Amino acid sequence: MSKFLYFLLAITLVSACTSTQEKPKTEEVKSQVQTIIDKSIEYHQMGNLDNTSFSLTFRDIDYTYKNEKGLYEYTRTQIDSTGATVIDRMDNDTLRRTVNGVEPEITDEKRAAYTRSVNSVIYFFRLPFGLNDPAVNKIYVGETNIKGKAYHEVKVTFAQEGGGEDYDDVFLYWFDKEDYSMDYLAYLYHTDEGGMRFREAINPRRVNGMLIQDYVNYKPENEDIDIMTIDELFNENKLVELSKIINENVVIN
């Protein structure tokens, strides 16, 4: 056999071995990140949110959530500056607004804004539930330390199909290596002029078994930074506190 044929055979064998080694490694990483998410949902006791209802008050506005095997309804009830009762009711199809029981005409732009606002409160309240949705792409970043404690860091992006209008947002989550509680999260968003946020979970408590958390909401002074470095800025106390996310009057059914 010629030296050239020996060379081709060697290249083929190396490529085959590399391919065989990389595939199990990729599958192992996928399995690892899936296990982290599943254990966190279990720790938070949110596995039944596909067939559950709850209510809460956030910044003096009342929210309700009902989900029956994928058919959902979210509501937001508030009193506006004129004293009128405004109810936004969102389901799988659309969002409808009523003011003192009358449904006014609203533009598509306003409907989209109301939908984002209602969905945002419910989405963050339910975390880490939702991280197993089909449109979610989960990537294991690695182990890291925040304030001297060890965490699994997971990056989440979204497929365009099924990912909603905010599919190009990027999220980071930090899960306690011991109990898998979701203690921190960060996100890069592009709607409403865009920005970057970092949230620290506070006030953990159980309501009907489910772990409920509030958050301190931070941002970097320069929101053009690489979001992958935001936990380092938090460790160095270089984030600016914006607000507190306090969930009150929580009832889980």
Q: What key phrases describe this protein's structure?
A:
2 domains, 253 residues, six-stranded antiparallel β-sheet
Structural class: alpha+beta
What is the overall silhouette? globular
Helix content: 25-40%
Strand content: 35-45%
Radius of gyration: 22 Å
SS element count, helices = 3
Annotation, overall tally of beta strands:
13
Oligomeric organization of the protein chains: single chain
Mean pLDDT level: 89
Distance between the termini: 75 Å
**How are strands sequenced across the largest beta sheet?**
6-7-8-9-10-11-12
Describe this structure in words.
- The chain has 253 residues and is an alpha+beta fold.
- The protein folds into 2 domains: 1-43 and 132-246, no CATH class; 47-127.
- The chain is built from 3 helices and 13 strands; from the N terminus they run αβββββαββββββαββ.
- It has helices spanning 3-44, 108-126, 230-235; strands at 51-58, 61-68, 71-79, 85-91, 95-99, 136-146, 149-158, 170-176, 182-189, 195-207, 210-220, 239-245, 247-252.
- The strands form 2 sheets. It has a 7-stranded antiparallel sheet. The chain has a 6-stranded antiparallel sheet with strand order 5-4-3-2-1-13, covered by helices on one side.
- The longest helix has 42 residues, at 3-44.
- 19% of the residues are buried.
- Residues 1-23 have low confidence and may be disordered.
